[in-house]
Amino acid sequence: xxxxxxxxxxxxxxxxxxxxxxxxxxxxxxxxxxxxxxxxxxxxxxxxxxxxxxxxxxxxxxxxxxxxxxxxxxxxxxxxxxxxxxxxxxxxxxxxxxxxxxxxxxxxxxxxxxxxxxxxxxxxxxxxxxxxxxxxxxxxxxxxxxxxxxxxxxxxxxxxxxxxxxxxxxxxxxxxxxxxxxxxxxxxxxxxxxxxxxxxxxxxxxxxxxxxxxxxxxxxxxxxxxxxxxxxxxxxxxxxxxxxxxxxxxxxxxxxxxxxxxxxxxxxxxxxxxxxxxxxxxxxxxxxxxxxxxxxxxxxxxxxxxxxxxxxxxxxxxxxxxxxxxxxxxxxxxxxxxxxxxxxxxxxxxxxxxxxxxxxxxxxxxxxxxxxxxxxxxxxxxxxxxxxxxxxxxxxxxxxxxxxxxxxxxxxxxxxxxxxxxxxxxxxxxxxxxxxxxxxxxxxxxxxxxxxxxxxxxxxxxxxxxxxxxxxxxxxxxxxxxxxxxxxxxxxxxxxxxxxxxxxxxxxxxxxxxxxxxxxxxxxxxxxxxxxxxxxxxxxxxxxxxxxxxxxxxxxxxxxxxxxxxxxxxxxxxxxxxxxxxxxxxxxxxxxxxxxxxxxxxxxxxxxxxxxxxxxxxxxxxxxxxxxxxxxxxxxxxxxxxxxxxxxxxxxxxxxxxxxxxxxxxxxxxxxxxxxxxxxxxxxxxxxxxxxxxxxxxxxx
Length: 701
Fold this sequence. Notes:
- The protein is an alpha+beta fold.
- The chain contains 20 helices and 27 strands.
- The longest helix is centred in the middle third of the chain and has 38 residues.
- The protein is elongated.
């Protein structure tokens, strides 16, 4: 049978629909919700009901959150979603609206779901009206029919309250749901008190209304003469049906609450797995006694609340443990780096809006490396990374990765080797997690930075004038995927940091947004960095402030390193580059490193000679051996400074000087080395060798 509603209700061309004048005469407002665009149009009367002036409303249903309490919004969203899922044509519900003066008023809505020819929901057209007086009249009816309806409503209250409690993650959330949901209002409670059992005592965690706290009851013993203590001791609910019964049963407590005009009360033990975790009291000012049905409903409500409280307590305990673990895994202090200003920041993810903060696997680290000079500039490794997941496992893996990366870097391995070894370690850790990472090794005496990237986002560099740019870095696979894909290649990119330049390493939580393109996010971030403070700490604070304002379900780690200006020449230093056969980019990077080092170390007059000799040594190693070459450039400090270029390979065969002849195109390499250098030689290195050449240099400022 065809869907008559779907065929008859094709979308009209005009939108929004205009309400029938009779709605206005009956003090009803109308709305038209376009499900495709998300626009939610209201007429003037609807604006009055929501107490939302049209000039303050942007046409989005989210803008009404200031008027609709969270618990009401959850219930309405669930109702509409169920109606759409069930194929219903309409729905109706009562809910509360918080007006500008803080008062709550009841409202009723009825919506008609319009679908296209395929049955897909396209629009919801409906009405809203003030239902405050209507509900007051219903509450005022005390005949049998009204009481039957109240019992049915109370049963519904338990169901709705249980549904709302399903979204609560913390103890505070549970209390807020109970105080804010319409359930307790329909139950007629004047005041709510709640306590948790801790080490043989009951600690009060909720009391109301405001100003009703009884002195001496914040923490009470279970054997004291209070109703919550009694229900915890006996594991039995206590229903107090009159003021006289209250005064006679609890003479210590009663004098402190007489101003509340309490006529009856229900105290419920909160029991989970036959163990009391707390107690709750509902105090009433307009009822005497409880029917058997009402008692059963309240006991069921107490059971639901107990389950939610235990879940919230477990969540808070796990969160505390996880956050403590993560804080223990992150560096406690960041070392001072000669020649640089450093700032690091970490922001935990916000999961579930205001429901709390979760943890993740983002981390940063700064590793002092051998070869720096205390007076001029240090060598330092900067790490930023992100382990997959948001739990204690991610934090534990993060801590282990941070430690091994620090160890590999401190041992003096090349950046590519550091990353490859870390990937093998994570793969052998027998975990289902992978990690992205970026490692930058900076020599602050020269400004040369060697960068390797494992599936991570590119770094940024901010110039001294504030200009910010993204630095594309060729990358390898994320850490931990080496066994699955069989690749441990991590190409090294070389860049220079001039004095006043800032290197920014970050995780994707600062860039990525749901539904947004990563490149757009990087462009927005570079603009933000360019407009930010010049001081690295101020800039880091600004970036974290933006992340806080934006929220998001991913954590953020940030490391900023700014190279200071040089007042005096900076002696010393050591740079190293791995060059693989058939890798022209690595060879270009080695040349770039040598050129920058020579310039920074004040040997500009011999720059061409040094670069040519180094190029010959590298080429010989690649052509006449089967493996890669490791190029090292360093300054030897003595009575006269000497710049030394070393090229290490895995072959034990010694280089041989040959005569090229008049028409020869090869054989001139060692002749050039001998002619241009001030000394050269060969040293055994394990199963291989190292060919070196030295140049006497005269430093200039």
